[in-house]
Specification:
By secondary structure, the protein is α+β, with helices and mostly antiparallel strands. Helices cover 27% and strands 21% of the residues. Belongs to the iron/ascorbate-dependent oxidoreductase family. Keywords: Iron, Metal-binding, Oxidoreductase.
Length: 317
């Protein structure tokens, strides 16, 4: 029987009765998952399931339009990330198209006119996932034993959060890569997907890939590079990829609970000098790292191994 990533019930964090035992059990599972995989799934997460289903339906409708129609929602030149509709370059290893947005109040957002309710649903999903990100961040804060509200105060600016609706094209006979193996640069990522599947996570540094099987009304959560660096690799930024199935398109959303670009990122003293451990990473300005990661997408290197990732800042041990 193949291994699966753990699923956590978040209902104790939403109830009025103060289910402390339920919270404790959830935090234990999350802490272990973040140490071992960097991935877990959540249910009873407070985001209406019908809203997530509607968002997937509308994205399928939008991506079904002709390229001429979709390109009317192309990114503006001033945005720090390509908001609106984009398609991976033909020579890129990743075979997908996507629709990206910043927070609803952002002036950078480019919304399609059709489907008519797409904008409203996208903004509703974004707001719910932002609130959920705050909860998961507070749980991670406790799991790491950090001072109360440490991550909340460190990461209080939500203007760099973003979300993308993805359409992965069906696999061909010679190529089934949808999204090349990578780690996310941000703090925490949420993913919800259709029933097609294809998301895989690598267990630690082993070559074992674990499929993240779509489950009704669940969200996938993964830890990003920022948390890995702050915790000096106590919590893992999981390596994951998307494998495209033959004969089927795959639709999903990824929400990136991000960090403001002007934040400095480096291992915290709690996980280094206070316990006699050497820092595994040198410090960096987050916007410089995000720019390098975005360049991987916009100007893919000839060799996948030349992609920039968090090892760019790793110290020799």
């Amino acid at each position: 029987m193949s291994e699966s990533i753990p699923t956590v019930d978040l209902s104790p964090f939403f109830g009025e009765g103060g289910d402390e035992d339920g919270k404790k059990k959830a935090k234990e599972v999350i802490s272990q998952a973040c140490s071992q995989y960097g991935f877990f799934q959540i249910r009873n997460h407070g985001v209406p399931p019908e809203l997530l289903s509607r968002a997937l339906e509308l994205s399928k409708t939008f991506f079904g339009f002709s390229d001429d129609v979709k390109l009317k929602s192309s990114p503006g030149s001033a945005a720090p990330l390509p908001t609106g509709y984009s398609k991976r370059p033909e020579h890129a290893p990743d075979k997908s198209e996507y629709m990206l947005m910043f927070p609803p109040e952002s002036g950078f957002n480019v919304y399609p006119e059709n489907p008519p309710e797409f904008k409203e649903v996208l903004e509703d999903v974004f707001t719910h996932l932002t609130n959920l990100g705050s909860l998961i961040e507070s749980i991670i804060n406790e799991c790491l034993g950090l001072p109360p509200n440490f991550l909340k105060e460190y990461n209080h600016d939500r203007s760099w959060d973003f979300m993308a609706a993805h359409h992965y094209f069906p696999a061909t006979e010679t190529d089934n890569n949808g999204l090349t193996e990578h780690e996310d640069p941000n703090c925490v990522t949420f993913v919800f997907q259709d029933q097609v599947g294809g998301l895989n996570v690598r267990k630690n540094c082993e070559c074992e890939w674990i499929p993240v099987t779509p489950a009704q009304d669940t969200l996938v959560v993964n830890i990003g590079d920022v948390i890995q660096v702050l915790s000096n690799k106590k919590f893992k930024s999981a390596t994951h990829k998307v494998v495209r199935p033959e004969g089927k398109s795959r639709f999903s959303y990824a929400f990136f609970y991000n960090l403001h670009g002007n934040n400095w990122v480096e291992p915290l003293s709690k996980f280094t000098e206070e316990i006699g451990e050497a820092p595994k990473y040198r410090g960096f300005l987050y916007k410089e790292y995000q720019a390098l990661r975005m360049r991987n997408k916009t100007h893919p290197p000839a060799k996948p191994e030349d992609n920039i990732n968090i090892t760019h800042y790793a110290k020799c041990q």
